[in-house]
């Protein structure tokens, strides 16, 4: 059974922690996108290669560099004909300008670009806008556009702590691994590995733990290294 129609919402914030809503705080789309894309990428060192020997054969592999944030993209429709929402407008220019200002204007308090959270169904994507491209179509006899599509792209964001852990996760010579024993907690293990509790939530996300309060006995957990800044 189909549920009620839920439209994608784009929420804007002044800060990366998303505790201070921007003005306006939300932009509801006119019509949900037909599709959206999420790009996952891995970066390798391009100036050097590592030669690995496997029996009599040798292969050249690129050394891992880092895992950058994901990229989200979708196409949104703006319409002034009234066919989609029953409201006829002279053209779509005012609405596309409003959307551009919502995404690309610098916040007057922080003097910085805004942070966004996109929510639609099971999708929750946090990031910052990197591109907005309009294509205008369907014109009135005097040349005013009555329909437009917007190609919008966001670069994902996560905390510095989580990003550092993810970027170090594929370093087997550096990553600490612990097998969960009865009575272990993630807090105790983080204290043992890192000497503090600052990375509990980040380690839980790196290991895709649904809960860090109850750990499955026998599960192997990865604790990537943390770079300690030098004076």
TrEMBL record:
InterPro entries: CIS_tube_prot_N, LysM. Residues 5-161 form the Contractile injection system tube protein N-terminal domain. Residues 179-223 form the LysM domain. This is LysM peptidoglycan-binding domain-containing protein. It comes from Neolewinella litorea.
């Amino acid at each position: 059974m189909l549920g009620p129609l839920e439209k994608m919402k784009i929420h804007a914030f002044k800060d990366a922690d998303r505790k201070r809503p921007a003005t306006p705080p939300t932009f509801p789309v006119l019509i949900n996108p037909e599709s959206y894309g999420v790009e996952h990428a891995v970066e390798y060192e391009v100036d050097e290669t590592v030669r690995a020997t496997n029996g009599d054969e040798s292969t050249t592999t690129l050394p891992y560099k880092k895992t950058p944030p994901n990229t989200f993209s979708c196409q949104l429709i703006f319409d002034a004909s009234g066919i989609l929402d029953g409201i006829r407008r002279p053209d779509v220019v005012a609405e596309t300008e409003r959307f551009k200002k919502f995404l690309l204007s610098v916040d007057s308090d922080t003097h910085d670009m805004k942070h966004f959270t996109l929510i639609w169904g099971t999708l929750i994507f946090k990031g910052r806008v990197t591109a907005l491209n309009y294509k205008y179509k369907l014109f009135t006899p005097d040349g005013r556009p009555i329909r437009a599509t917007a190609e919008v792209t966001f670069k994902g964001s996560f905390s510095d702590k989580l990003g550092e852990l993810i970027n170090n996760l594929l370093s087997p010579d550096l990553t600490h691994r612990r097998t969960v024993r009865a009575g272990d907690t993630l807090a105790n293990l983080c204290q043992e590995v890192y000497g503090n509790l600052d990375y509990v939530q980040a380690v839980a996300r790196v290991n895709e733990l649904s809960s860090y309060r109850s750990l499955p006995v026998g599960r192997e957990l990865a604790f990537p290294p943390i770079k300690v800044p030098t004076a």
